[in-house]
Amino acid sequence: MKSFPPALLSLPFLLATIVPAAEAAPPNFVFIIADDCTHRELGCYGGQARTPNIDRLATQGMRFTHCFQAAPMCSPTRHNLYTGLYPVKSGAYPNHTFAKDGTKSVCHYLGDLGYRVALSGKTHIAPRETVFPFEYSGVANNPDPEAIDALVGECAIAGRPFCLFACSNEPHTPWNKGDPSAYPPEKVVLPPYHVDTPETRDGWSRYLAEITYFDGQVGEILALLDKHGVADNTLVIVTTEQGNSMPFAKWTLYDSGIQTALIARWPGHIRPGSVSGALVEYVDVLPTFIDAAGGAPAPVLEGRSFLPVLRGETDRHKDHVFALMTTRGINNGSDHFGIRSVRSDTHKLIVNLTPGETFRNACVQSPEFESWVRAARAGDADAAEKVRRYQHRPAVELYDLATDPLEWNNLADDPAQAETLAALRAKLDAWMSQQGDQGQITEMEALDHLSRNRQKAENAGKSGKKGGKKRPTQQG
Asked: Alpha-carbon Rg of the chain, whole angstroms?
């Protein structure tokens, strides 16, 4: 195989990046998002799932190693992504939630710049008519290839830029897609924070198969860009959303819950095969799109454009990222178990607002977790410790991510870490204050921010009364 000097390989990239912006057509945006997929399972992140399309995309663009979201659940995450606002600020902080009236989203910001803005697949956002007026499509809660084909084709012919969010429902449970035989349960490698039971292995086999199914969806969408000749002027981002629904991932603020894969390709602008360790957040995506489209991000947006990172101009973006979690209103959730966190490059601080409560969610009713409980009752000390750690949290957790990336050794009571803890606590307190997050008071008001209780919340706001005292029957 003939090789070329690195300087020659980079020449087209360098020439493309110096073309005056005024001569370039506005880029298209395609954002492909999974549903409940821990980032480290992808092949290009060292995982055991077979993801050839995503892995190939990583060789064509930039892979981020430190991208985070502000909540480890579907609905607040998607509101955060589309509005460029953190969850409490937009009002969309519990699951099954809605954004405050008057909130603007990517539909408005890019629509004003001449874009068609579409969403195909899973939604989990509200209100659709005013805050999120996308061009909607989807098949069984997944992207609709025919609708995407039509959108891309029409925009290619008209010369009009488009922004597409292709939102998969995979690998969300029940893990019934893909080929589990490709991942024999006995050969699956379990993370060290899981208990080795037949049920856990079976779950992992089906979960990994569904990640490969999602990878096929990615490949199908990328092929449509090639079909219509728009790939070279399209910024593509593939991401995994929060972690899987097994213990210590989704519904938690450990990195397995809030860290997400992010792979970006934009020919002529992003160096192929590059890797960035910059701290970025989902809240930064909307400002980045506006910036890349030639607009000026509105001051109300809380994220910051990471376009300079994509262009290779810097490998730094933020010093800290923030997240929150509330169990209030979720399926099988604790009545109130609020969590807040702040993360730097090296350390994570987690504050559990009501450590005396038992932490519950849909996961504790899963076959996997129930098998852990049975093992614990049968005398398995490892299972007993992991069940305890999952459901009973201390008030404060502090982790050194350089030496303990899976966040297992709590340093909160270590006197040598007191200065680090205090500095992170000050950052977290300042962020919560800026957001209007009053901790437990905000937690108890979460039910007023559920879509099914929207009218109740509006009435309570008009009368000045506070709701959220009685928990309604939970829904999907």
From this structure: 22
